[in-house]
Amino acid sequence: MIQLLFLVIFAEGVLAFLLLVKIGPLRDLVIKSLDQLKMGKGPATVKTIAGTMSVILLSSLMSIVKIQNKGAKLGTMSPMDQVLWRTHLLEASLMGAFMFLSSGLFASLLTGLVLIIYTS
């Protein structure tokens, strides 16, 4: 799961880079594919994925809190609890970054950048 999240964040970074750099055919292809994603079944798919990711993120956050409470109750955390805690923390932070980058704020930022680039 963590490798998949790293791959998705890397892909979002590449997409943002392709929108910012003036590489003619690649940038046009990216813009056309984003336009196609906005039409048809794209929004429903994005909402479904966002809902699923939100549930998984909440599950990771609840696991983090449970492990912390267990450690506070016992006075110390076992090495296994520490590994689980760090894994859940990494997973939750990657999902949070993914959801932030794919949110409407990032999309509107990119749309504004594309409009600025096209008008200049």
From TrEMBL:
Q: What stretches pass through the bilayer? A: 6-23, 44-65, 94-118
Q: Can you say where in the cell this protein is located? A: Endoplasmic reticulum membrane
Q: Name one GO biological process term.
A: endoplasmic reticulum to Golgi vesicle-mediated transport
Q: GO CC terms on record?
A: endoplasmic reticulum membrane
Q: Which UniProt keywords apply?
A: Endoplasmic reticulum, ER-Golgi transport, Membrane, Protein transport, Receptor, Transmembrane, Transmembrane helix, Transport
Q: Which InterPro entries match?
A: BAP29/BAP31 (IPR008417)
Instruction: Tell me yes or no: is Cytoplasm among this UniProt entry's keywords.
Output: no
Q: How does it sit in the membrane?
A: Multi-pass membrane protein
Coiled-coil residues are none
Q: What does this protein do?
A: May play a role in anterograde transport of membrane proteins from the endoplasmic reticulum to the Golgi.
Q: Which family does it belong to?
A: Belongs to the BCAP29/BCAP31 family.
Name of the featured protein: Endoplasmic reticulum transmembrane protein
Q: From which source organism is this entry?
A: Vigna unguiculata
